[in-house]
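[SOLVED] Need 3D model of a two-part complex

Original post:
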Amino acid sequence: MVEAQAVIEQAGTLETAGTILAAADKVVSRARAALTPARRQKAGRIAGLLTAAAAITYLLFAGGCAAPEAAPPPPITTPAPPWLKLTTPSPSPPPTETREPTRTPTLTSTPTPSSPPTPSETPAPTRTPTPTSTRRPTLTDKEVYERTEKLLSATATAVAIKGADNSFVPEGPFRQEHFDQVRGGTYSLTIYYEGVPGRRVTCWLARAEKSSDGDEFYYFITAEHPLKPFFAGSPVSTMEIAQPDKESSFPFARAWAAALTEDDLAVIKVEFEKNHALLADPLPWRDNVEFKKSEPIISVGYPGVFVTENTIVAGEAGKVTKQIAVDSLRFVWVTTLSSRGGSGSPVAIIDEAGELTVWGVLSGMDKENVERPQAVIRNLKIKALIDSPDNFRPIPLTNTSPS
Amino acid sequence: MAKHQLINFDPIKFLGLENLTRKDKEALTPKLIAKISEYLVIRTVEILPEKILRGDLTPETLLKKAQGEIPDYDKRLRSFLEDFKTEFQENLRSHG
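Solution:
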């Protein structure tokens, strides 16, 4: 390390970036040249699939071994969020949360949810354990699901016992009216495919517009991963947008979808069979919002375990705990829980003008915090997607309601 | 290995490039992550048995298979990272 610095100092203002990248390139080229032709081809194919997210997965495993000089700061213990205090029937008390130390403002390499487990209907396969690892093992996807759903289920039961239909507890800057506003614009999205398991997730209304012909179009935002089968060519057999807590369903005549795959964002554009006065105003939102660590957030959605317990809506105030950006992709961790059915849930802040603003959607779960998995959020980048009709693919439907 | 250390891995720090300007650091970080990751993929392919490499593999599946197949895989990765650093610094020195 000292040697590398000395070289840089010695050379003054070297053409640094080019020199450094050339040095790194040379290392990679030499390693590649040492492989047999067949393995070189194989490695090339695999490395060709290295996305930014996949790259940081590798550093999750390799990077931890590479920074031994930093003494770990003492963990910060924070109290559980208020909604967890409702968990009277919970079989075990909620564990305290250990947070990561404060990070530098510059977003650099770190382990990430390279593939944060997505809250879908089908749990991902469990990871092969590494018995010889000296690191604390991360949870498997299945364990994350079990843990979060146990917590959410206990909370939902406790709330139902209290006679409420949602779990929201006012906290920080978020009052009941904020929850009501987000709740009003948030819907459950059920989508079934032919020959592929369907799923129920969460979406929210971002825009309502009227064409010159008088047709009304509504733009709902959700995560991209529940729509992957559609974008891969699987026919959609059934799709429904509803507010189960209000027993409202909105059959529609036509639908289209557009997505930003790497950002796990999708827009569903629909034309309803008739104009629905029941639809609340679109939620205010903004792309590429910058925020601070510990920034308070609110998230509202329809996790499946809540619906099972007849509690229906999960609303939770939380905080941003960390963020990671690689290239243009940004992952944000917040202290709300994610669960199957919660994908696509809007995540909002109170902006500098005091207005509630949605800035992200719930995308997955963090597997690193074994005591209490957190949600992984993706920033909105939807304006260009919504504004260009060419981005949308029609969704041919055989039904519009699963019933 | 403590989790904090995992979280705080920084290729700029790891490679001893802390004297760079902030702008250079920001520009280089994702590129170095990509290079180091590619190097780890190559070195992993080098040590895995032939049968494991059959079929279509993604970086993620390769990593999972290596974890299951190679004892002390994380130690091997550490060694690969150290190899990368040593060779990188040699290359930098020869340039200067």
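Edit: Residues 1-8 of chain B have pLDDT under 50 and may be disordered.
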